[in-house]
Each structure stands twice: as structure tokens, then as C-alpha cells.
Design goal:
By secondary structure, the chain is mainly alpha-helical. The chain has 13 helices and no strands. Helix 7 packs across helix 9.
């Protein structure tokens, strides 16, 4: 392990780790299903309790903030539902990423599995939980008859960018938080601040002339490339360029960190 961190072939070994983890995708899927089953063991509705509570929260927030912001509920609630679901997915993913490797300490120390498996396990576990809330978007579209047009297909490349950033966050934060255990609470505080300064419960139009500066907010860019097409508001080219640039930087940083410190993870956990 120690020699691996100084081996000139560590880039190749990191790539082999990623490749082997991707080929063994059935293992993280099985582990993610086990995590979900254990989390809701003994529950009657399982994850659907979260769907029910989320739906109630959306209705309450929609009634409140549509009044405060003086917006029509049929116009505001679809925006709120899509925004909150996307934000919750990324926020929960980031929070879970901080403990993804620490929680797998027993497996890491006993079995020679690719570290990519643990990152994919975290990613798929949160994807399964998020899937239980996705029907709420369809319900809101049906109730308010606000179905997106063919432009909604643009949300697919946006989801690819969103997923790549989530995976990069899991890889990077999993290693950093394994080395420095106090990073997790700091990340939680940053995410809380980012929630309030990002257009999640408030619409970008409320900023009027200052809306142009939102492109500097990476959370806005990554949400907008998925949210915009679903709400018949295609993002501008500048937002797409910013989202691609952010994805490239995040993936590059995560990969460089993984190449450099992959051999030390077993000692950190």
C-alpha cells in the first residue's frame, strides 16, 4: 500500500480500479439494496414514508412561499418540487459521501475490492432513495397540466452531468473525510449555506438585473441543466458551458486526488 502511493504506475492502477469497479456494478447494486432494506427494516411503507412526508412538505412550502413571493401556485409549485428533489438528491449524496469509505472500513480492511465499488454503492443507494420521490414530479405536472414538451429531452445530458458531479463528490469527499474527520461537519455547514443562496425555494427572476451572476453558482448551473428543460425553460448556452466546465474540474480534481492517495485509503479509514 505504501509503495503504491509512490509508484509511477499509480495512474494505471487508479484507472484499473475504476474499470474493475464499473465491471462489478452488480455488487454495489446489491449492497445498495441491502442498505435500503436495513434502513427501513420493520417499516410498513419503507422508503414511501419519505415520499409521503416529502409530498406534505412540498404542499406546505408551496402554499407558504407562493404567498410570500406573490406567485401563482400552479406556476410556483412545479418549480419548487423539481428544485427540492434535485437539491435533496445532491445534498444527501454529499452528506453520505463524507462517510462512504469510513462506513466501509470493515470491508476495506478485509477484502481487496476496488474503492470504486464503495463510491458506486453510495451513488446507487441515494439514487434508489431519490427514485421514490420522482413520481411527485409527475403528479404535480398532472395536477397543474404543465407537461414539458420535446425540450424535456435536454434534461438527459443534464442528468449525466449531475451524476458525474455526484460521483466525483463521493470519490473526493470520501477520501478527504476519511483522512480528516472534521471535514464532514464543515461540508454540512457549507451545504446549508448553499441552499439559501441558490434558487431552490426562490426563483431566479426575483433577482431581476442581478440574475446574470447566478451562473457563478455551481449548484445553480448543475440544477438548471436538469430543471430548466423539465419546466419548459431551456437553460442558456452560458449555463451549459458553466455546467460542463464545473463537471470537468470536479472530475479532474477527484481523479488526481484518487491517483495520488489511493494507496493510503486503507490506513485512513
Amino acid at each position: 500500500m505504501i509503495s503504491d502511493s509512490a509508484n509511477p504506475r499509480r495512474v494505471r492502477r487508479a484507472l484499473e480500479d475504476l474499470e474493475l469497479g464499473a465491471r462489478r456494478w452488480r455488487l454495489p447494486v446489491a449492497l445498495a439494496r441491502l442498505d435500503i432494506r436495513n434502513r427501513y427494516r420493520g417499516s410498513v411503507l419503507g422508503p414511501f414514508w419519505m415520499t409521503l412526508s416529502t409530498a406534505i412538505t412540498f404542499v406546505a412550502l408551496g402554499l407558504l412561499y407562493s404567498t410570500l413571493f406573490k406567485m401563482n401556485l400552479p406556476e410556483y409549485l412545479p418549480f419548487l418540487v423539481v428544485s427540492m428533489i434535485l437539491w435533496n438528491v445532491f445534498a444527501q449524496m454529499v452528506g453520505d459521501a463524507c462517510t462512504s469509505l469510513i462506513a466501509a472500513e470493515g470491508i476495506i480492511r478485509q477484502m481487496p475490492l476496488p474503492y470504486t465499488v464503495h463510491a458506486l454503492r453510495c451513488l446507487m443507494r441515494n439514487a434508489v432513495v431519490a427514485a421514490h420521490n420522482l413520481p411527485l414530479i409527475l403528479v404535480v405536472f398532472l395536477v397543474f397540466n404543465s407537461w414539458p414538451g420535446i425540450g424535456a429531452l435536454l434534461a438527459l445530458p443534464g442528468m449525466v452531468l449531475f451524476t458525474l458531479n455526484a460521483f466525483a463528490a463521493v470519490m473526493f469527499l470520501g477520501m478527504v473525510c476519511a483522512r480528516f474527520r472534521d471535514i464532514g461537519p464543515i461540508v454540512g455547514t457549507v451545504m446549508q449555506l448553499a441552499f439559501f443562496v441558490s434558487p431552490v425555494i426562490w426563483k431566479p427572476e426575483l433577482l431581476h438585473d442581478q440574475q446574470k451572476w447566478l451562473v457563478l453558482n455551481p449548484f445553480y448551473d448543475l440544477m438548471e441543466v436538469v430543471r430548466g428543460p423539465l419546466l419548459n425553460m431551456p437553460p442558456s448556452l452560458l449555463v451549459w458551458v458553466a455546467a460542463v466546465l464545473i463537471t470537468t474540474v470536479n472530475c479532474s480534481v477527484a481523479f488526481v486526488f484518487f491517483v495520488r492517495f489511493r494507496g493510503r485509503i486503507a490506513f485512513w479509514v
